Amino acid sequence: MRIISKIFLLLLISMFVVKSHAQTSLRMPQAKADLDTTLLLIGDHVTLQIDVENYDSAFVQFPVYTDTIIKNVEILKDLPFDTIDDNGRSIIRKRYVLTSFDSGYYYINPIAVMLRYKSNVVDTIYTNPLFFGVQTIQIDSAETRVADIKLPLDTPLTIKEFFHEYMPYLIIIVIALIIVFLVLWLLKNRKRKVVEIVEEIPKEEAHVYALRELDLLSEKKYWQRGQIKDYYSKLSEILRRYLELRYEIMALESSTTDISQILKVKKVIEKELQTKLLEFLETADLVKFAKFEPLASEHIKYLEQAYDFVLKTKIEVVPEQEGVNSQNDESGKSN
After folding, report:
1. CB of 209 within 8 A of CB of 245?
2. What is the pTM assigned to this prediction?
3. What are phi and psi of 40, to 5 degrees?
4. Max alpha carbon distance in the chain (Å)?
5. Would you call 224 helix, strand, or coil by DSSP?
6. How far apart are CA 15 and CA 9, in angstroms?
7. Are 99 and 111 contacting, i.e. CB atoms less than 8 angstroms apart?
8. Homologous superfamily (CATH) for 26-135
9. Using an 8 Å Cβ cutoff, are 78 and 71 in contact?
10. Is there a contact between 69 and 108 (Cβ–Cβ < 8 Å)?
11. Among the residues of the chain, which ranges form H helices?
């Protein structure tokens, strides 16, 4: 009796184990792959979708591709995975966007998906294989004919295109016109060259100029109004210009020392007059450069000396009639 009881107990345990194993085998994770189309044209897109049933909340790791999934089939997009609840089932969905530029038929081997359970057990499951075709665009030869080559469209030139194409020629034309104009202008002016007749203005006598300017200086009363520097500068300029006109000495551009040396060499002025002239020029330099201020009596003295200098050194003009009369007298005496 005991033996029968033990046998019955073993049978119950065996049935429970078999049932548990069957339930466990029924809940094994599965991976399914699918394409949204199995026939596409060159360059079209096709979506590869992988669904994994995840009963035990395992960590699912999908394959990582670089640029192709198989030869001549490129991966355009690697989309992030989604988690979908389908009537109590947890489905992990992964999608890839594929394309191909070579016609033909392609076979994708089962794709490996790795599972890592909470117990750190690692398992690998595989999807079903896939098959799809890529074809070129079919050309209906019955409706297709070879067309003639069309002539280029005759569109008007824009302003920008015109200048871009013809600007070098325009520049050359403008330069050529300028050269021609200059040549003609030079030839025309050479032919019509007019000889200007310069009317010689009789030179003013040196003493006439000096006496007139001295009179004007006296009338302006510079020193009486306190313009001492202007007075001596103007008086010095009158005498220096008189020396240039009378003796051809570059007095306006020379210093007082240089004028003194020139007069000593030329010996054209009496010593007393020369001494008074140089004394005034030195005083004028002191007034101009050293802010020296002579006495009022000296202002008058230097003006009077200037008159005296001009009158005593001026060129005496002999009247022409007197010269003729003297010649007649001499001829009469000789007779």
Report:
1. yes
2. 0.39
3. -140, 160
4. 214
5. helix
6. 10
7. no
8. Immunoglobulins (2.60.40.10)
9. no
10. yes
11. 2-26, 159-191, 206-220, 228-247, 256-266, 271-290, 296-313, 320-334
Query: What is the C-alpha R_g of the chain?
Result: 64
| 107/327 Cα distance (integer angstroms) | 147
d(CA 239, CA 228): 17
Q: What angle do CA 95, 100, 103 make, to 5 degrees?
A: 140
How many residues does the structure list for the chain?
A: 335
152-210 confidence digits (pLDDT tens) = 777 777 887 777 788 888 899 999 999 998 999 888 887 665 444 444 445 789 999 99
Backbone angles phi, psi at 127, to 5 degrees: -85, 175
Inter-axis angle of helices 228-247 and 206-220, to 10 degrees?
170
For the chain, the domains span 26-135, 206-313
Dist CA 35 CA 96 (whole Å): 10
Task: Please say whether the beta carbons of 239 and 210 come within 8 A.
Answer: yes
Q: In terms of Cα–Cα distance, which of 35, 33, 58 is closest to 112?
A: 33
3-state secondary structure of 55: coil
**Is 120 in a helix, a strand, or coil?**
coil
* Lookup result for tokens 């100029």: 209
- 105 within 8 A of 132, measured Cβ to Cβ: yes
The Cα 39–Cα 97 span in angstroms is 15
Q: What share of the chain is helix, strand, coil (3-state, %, to 5)?
A: 50, 20, 35
Identity of the residue numbered 171: I
| CA dist., res. 224 & res. 232, Å (int) | 12
**Spatial separation of the C-alpha atoms in residues 54 and 81, rounded to whole Å:** 13
pLDDT in tens, 304-316: 999 999 999 998 7
